[in-house]
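Pinned message: reference record for Spore coat protein U domain-containing protein
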Amino acid sequence: MRRGSVLFLPLTWLAFSTASAQTCTFSLANADFGNVDVLVPGAIDAVAQGTFSCTGASTPYVRACVSAGSGRYMTGPASAKLSYDMYIDAARTRPWGSLWEASAANVLTADIPIASGSGSATVPVYLRIFDGQAQSPVGSYSQGFLGAGYTGYNAVGYSTTPPTCTTSSGPQTAPSFTIRATVIAGCSVSATSIDFGQMGVIAAPINATGVITATCTKGAIVTLALNAGTGSGATVASRRMTRAGGSELLTYMLYADSARTQLWGDKSSGTTTVGLSGTGAAQTVTVYGTVPAQTTPKPGTYSDTVTVTVTF
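Predicted structure (tokens):
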């Protein structure tokens, strides 16, 4: 009789599990001031939206902290600078700072709720271009925060109490974003009156001058035109003052040159306009007026209103 034996072999099942590492990213949208007029007094404000996203997280929440380096100015034409700042509060009292600098308390922070390992949160970033930059020339300006060296991203998971932002977690993907603005041409214009004074019989020409003051954005190419005024039958080549309380008219002309050979109008009827290149500072242009010899109208006070049109 033969005996059989059964050999029992130990069977082992190896289960491999892979856990994906936590990865967090940051992006900044609408970081563009759009068109700005630096001649308008006061700061220029805008709001951008920062979005924090995390995947592969194993905790209910992630605290994410984004640092941004200092030196806030956009560069434009011919390396011109436009100063601005970014803030983490609506009152714009806490400039967005860096964990690696003295402004660590002002890093941009979000607490991200996590579901199935992923989550996101959006927070506002408050932008401000400072007042007093009227010398900034027309053109496009930008500053890029191009990842490592400019920005840093730290993220720490937690369950109940949010941790303090520190550098201990090591930087995540360093975010890159760009702040933009476009300085547009603008002008402010004022003028003094042209007073021909008192006159009797108008047997010879009577001259007087006035001044137009224009403050235009640096680099703006500007044209100043004068309309015909309000006198009945007036043209840009021959204007009319009207007697107060009546309808009598007094003819006069406006010129762009001291020799009084270039009638200043809107380029119709043989007239010219005056051009300027903006400097960001006030510029003055003289208006040369003449009341030509003519039949003297009824005594009284004569006046007219001429409109300056600025094209740029």
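Pinned by admin. Summary line: The chain has two domains: 23-183, 187-311.
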